[in-house]
Every structure is written in C-alpha cells, then in structure tokens.
Amino acid sequence: MAAGGVKITPMNNNFGKGINCRMGFRFFFKTFCLFWLLQFATVRSDITDGNAEHLKREHSLVKPYQGVGTSPSSQWDFSGSTLVTSQYVRLTPDERSKEGSIWNTVPCFLKDWEMHVQFKVHGSGKKNLHGDGIALWYTKERLHPGPVFGNQDHFVGLAIFLDTFRNDLHGMDRSFPYISAMVSNGTVAYDHGKDGRPTELGGCSAEIRNKEHDTYLAIRYSKGRLTVMVDVDDKNEWKECIDIGGVRLPTGYYFGASAATGDLSDNHDIISMKLYQLMVTHTADEESLDWTKIEPSVSLLKSPKDNIDDPTGNFRGTPLTGWKVFLLLLCALLGIVVCAVVGAVVFQKRQERNKRFY
Ligand SMILES: [Ca+2]
Description:
Residues 53-278 form the L-type lectin-like domain. The protein is an alpha+beta fold. It is 20% helix and 27% strand. It folds into two domains: 13-44 and 323-355; 49-318, Sandwich (Jelly Rolls), CATH 2.60.120.200. It has helices spanning 2-5, 19-46, 284-288, 322-357; strands at 76-80, 83-84, 89-92, 99-104, 113-122, 133-139, 156-163, 178-185, 202-205, 215-222, 225-231, 239-244, 247-248, 254-260, 267-277, 297-298. The N and C termini lie far apart (51 Å). Calcium ion (CA) binds next to loops.
C-alpha cells in the first residue's frame, strides 16, 4: 500500500550529528505508517463486507430466484427477452435487437444503502463487435421498456450504465467497456450517440466482458454521496470507479436492471443483486424530512467529478479521500525533508566555524 510505497531513505552520513532531526523523522515515519494502516482499515470497513444481518431480502435477487415472476406476491418482475433460469437471469441472449429487464416490485425506503450486483457479459462477438450493455436502476417508475439499455428515456432517478459498445467515435480518449452514472429528474435525455457523456456524473473504463471469473459492481448511496466500485479483475477487492457528493435521491424508488442489444449483441446476465442497509445516523433535521418528496438532483456548482459537498447543507460534509490525504502527507514529508536538509547544512557550517576557532 501507500505506506510501503513511500521510500524513506536513511539519513545521509553528513547529517549524522542531527540526532534530534533523525528522531523527529523516525517519529514522523512511524506516525505516517500508522496513519496509513488506519486509513486502509477505514477504507476496507467503509464498504460493507456483505454482512448478512443487513441484507434486505425483499430487495435482493439471489439464486435460485424464487419469488421471481408475474404473480401478485412476487418480489421481482421481468419483461422483454429476460429469461430466468436457476443459475442466472439473462436479460438478453447473444442475439440482435433484444431488450429485457428485471425489476424489484417492492419500493425501497432505506435512506442509506449499498447494492452489490454480480453480472456476466459474454458473447461470441470479437473485440468491439458486441453490445450494448447493462443498466442498473434506482427509479421512480419500473417496467417501462425503451431505448436506454432497454428502459425508458427521461427516467426519474439514478442509472448506472455498463456500456460495452462505443457509439461516439469522437470520444476516443476513453476505452470501452465504460461504466458511468447519471441522475435525472425526468427532464434530460440519455444521448446514446455520445454514450451518455453530456449527462455523465463520473465513470471509469473496466474490462468486464468474457471473463472466466466472477464480475461484480457495488453502488453505495449514503448521506448524499454516490460511490460505485468494481471487482472485475478476480482479485476479490473493490476498485473505486465513481465517487461524487451532492447527490440527492428520494426513498420509495425501485431497483432494477435492464439490457439491450442492437446490430451487435451479447448475453447480459445478472447472477445476483444484493441490497444491504447501511447503518448511518442522521440528524433530527434530516430525519424530519419527507424523503419520498426529494427530487433527484446533483449539485453541479463544481465539475461533477470534483463535486464533494452538498451546498444545501442537508448532508454532512464528506471526508478527505485517500489520495488527498496522501498528497497532504507527501507535502508534509517534503516539508520535513527540506527542514532537515537546511538544519543539517546550518549545523555543519557552525561546526566548521567552530573548528576555525580551535
Ligand atoms: Ca454505447
């Protein structure tokens, strides 16, 4: 990790007499290591470890997918090309012009949650000859097929797109598949031709296709902060993809997943969707709000990717992220090194001056 990666060389012989300086340095180094260990522990505990106690079964889709169907008591509905087997939910087969979706029938009234999705995108298409991808939803409406990865446009709520096909040939600065997030109150459209770039809040490239190992994505929404993590490299660890603040989403919306194929295709499979409740305390003011009345929005005072705080003050300010802390510590370390060098030079000059008087 970062602490191990920062190489602190032993004091140069010329500085041998600067004992105080060296002790200070050791102290700093130890503090630095300890801080990073703590930071690492914080990051790891930040994302839920899949604690079954907090798993919400009514919002989770797990093998063998009992309770999936069209009966009034079912917790998941599906439509279009969706095929439910005992091992996977196939939203589309590897065939052209298909679209399918699966939707939780129970609205979610949790204020802070984390959704873990195990998915599999695979097909016979060679590189760049496959599409279009999967979308994961937390929206006001459900089961409205349409042009946005099998769901309606002008949706109200949150979408996470796992876009496997590059439509925008001008956007060559990013590689595909590309994962991105969008929040809409229904007034904005998703621009397929530009791969959703005009409305994208953040994103990352991720190799998610034709993997032999399991591939996962986690979406966390808590205190106005939206975080998306991916685990697609068979390393059993989450890698941050999106992390933005100032996101406002109401309670009472529905989770869902959809996928579509066009001229090119893929199998788009959902293996599981597991929703965990995050144990977060809110202020009395926050608790007294009617969370079902919140309109989905993102404060765009800063560029979306740098967006950290909610200026409305409804949500707590967000802590420094790992790399910012690292930069701050690096600056502090450089400052100490400069001090040490200056101190040593001054010390040596004094020694030399003293020698002349002997
Ligand atoms: Ca696309």
